[in-house]
Each structure stands twice: as C-alpha cells, then as structure tokens.
C-alpha cells in the first residue's frame, strides 16, 4: 500500500489495500496477501523488501491493520486493478471507479458495460486516520 500510493494519502493506501483484498478473494489471483503483492509484474519492484520511511510507519501500520480487519475504500467496490493517475491506455474495457493517492482504480468489464471510460476527478478524505 505504501509504495503503490501517495505515501501521505490514507485514502490511497486504503484503496490499494482494497484492491489487494479483492484479489485475494478472487479465484483469478493468489489467495494470500503475500501471494498477490508478490505476483510478478503487478506491484512496485522489490515491494516486499524495500525500506519505508520510519516517520510514515504509524500511518502505514494503522492503515494496514484497518484493511486486514475489514476496512475497504467505499468507492473501490470490486475493482482489482489500478494504474498511475494521468496515464492513458487504449483499452475499451476499463471501467473507472476512483482516483485517489495518485492512482486510478478500475474494473475490467466487457466494453458494452463500461459506463465510466475515463478516470473521475481525484477524491481524498473519505477514510480517516485512526492513529495518533
């Protein structure tokens, strides 16, 4: 969550965590958090080994615990994909649900079911930090 989102955005980290948990629950992906995050080509290189800024640890720890205890970003829904906000792709199967923490979150759908083909405006502040 930390390396894939704007590191100061709790919403971004919760949204990335929601995608990870959606993948864990999907038969199309590994069935563990480590399996999903460690899947080749899916998350930031070295994400399982890189060091985090110690100053960020209280927010990161609280956010990770919240996701593991069931908190989900309210706008991610069942999305299992995201990419860096601002990037554009030529695919017609990307149904966007949220932009937050520097990422655009989307579901892959048959093109005739895509009703949001462009990323919406960024949203922050829908989740709240529960730490000190």
UniProtKB/TrEMBL annotation:
Residues 9-106 form the Cell wall hydrolase SleB domain. Keywords: Hydrolase. One of its GO terms (molecular function) is hydrolase activity. InterPro entries: Cell_wall_hydrolase_SleB (IPR011105), SleB_dom1 (IPR042047). This is Cell wall hydrolase.
């Amino acid at each position: 969550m930390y390396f894939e989102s704007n590191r100061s955005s709790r919403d971004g980290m919760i949204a990335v965590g929601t995608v990870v948990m959606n993948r864990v629950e999907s038969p199309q992906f590994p069935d563990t958090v480590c399996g999903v995050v460690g899947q080749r080509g899916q998350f930031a290189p070295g994400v399982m080994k890189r060091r985090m800024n110690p100053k960020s640890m209280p927010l990161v720890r609280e956010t990770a615990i919240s996701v593991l205890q069931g908190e989900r970003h309210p706008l991610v829904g069942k999305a299992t994909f995201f990419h860096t906000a601002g990037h554009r792709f030529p695919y017609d199967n990307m149904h966007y649900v949220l932009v937050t923490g520097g990422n655009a979150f989307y579901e892959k759908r048959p093109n005739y079911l895509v009703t949001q083909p462009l990323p919406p405006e960024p949203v922050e502040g829908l989740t709240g930090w529960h730490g000190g």
